[in-house]
Amino acid sequence: MTRRLLSWAESAVLPVVVTVLVAFLAAPLVVLVATAFTQTPYLSFPPDGFTLRWFEGVLSDPTWRAAAWNSLIIAAMSVGVAAVVGAPAAIVLARRGVRFAPSLTLLIMIPIMVPSIMYVLGLMLGYNELDVSVPTWGIVLALAVLTTPYLVRTLMAALEQLDPALEEAALSLGASRLRIWVEILLPNVAKSFFSGVSLAFILAFDELVVPLFLAGPDVPTLPVRIYSSVAYNVDPSVAAVSSLLVLVSALVAVLSARDNLRKPTTRKDGAPDGGA
Fold first, then answer.
1. What SS3 class is residue 268?
2. Where do the ABC transmembrane type-1 domain residues begin and end (predicted)?
3. Contacts of 104 by beta carbon, 8 Å cutoff, 6+ apart
4. CB 267 within 8 A of CB 273
5. Which of 19, 44, 121, 160 is least surrounded by CB atoms within 10 angstroms?
6. Domain ranges in the chain?
């Protein structure tokens, strides 16, 4: 009886719950994208008519282009720092027998456990006490600290599934640690590495609090520019820019997911992931 009830719940209730959840998550995005095509000079839903002039205005506006370029450069630099720091950290922490590995992992995860506003306020107060200005690199390092945990956690999950015999065999044949990392470990977790980098890039590109508090108008990123536009002059241009952000994030997510689904990974037992 219990088994039949669970089977009925799985076949009848679960699809409804998933559909409602997806609709709840997608509805704001649908409204946002739809309002970007309205002909009225203010946000309206349903859109009044159809026009692309808000997209044309945004793409031709040098201030929007400069903000997008700033976000792109800062996100790329912060992800580069996160990859250089996070990949070796994940490889070390995923090893068996490493002392204090759980404590070190928890320490790396602290930035995603603490509200970003608290982290940024601490940085801002520290910079003020030291009388240090915050150039672009200050924002890059702050974003790298916030995004590194996602990359480390993604890589650790993949590394923990690798067969330790691969590394042991390479060591017995005289391979150096660096060569093992470059030629064995990283190629086997390349898909997870790309997923972690993609997630870190999206988070850094969309981050508002860090550049807003640390640099403000001195380094106008795209989220800061959107925030300023919403605060002082709300028009469909904001919806157009936000729609483009949604499109970019969706493309990155789709590329990452497609790469993960295309190539099966190898489990510790040697069988392809998802296979028998």
1. coil
2. 68-256
3. 93, 98
4. yes
5. 19
6. 34-262
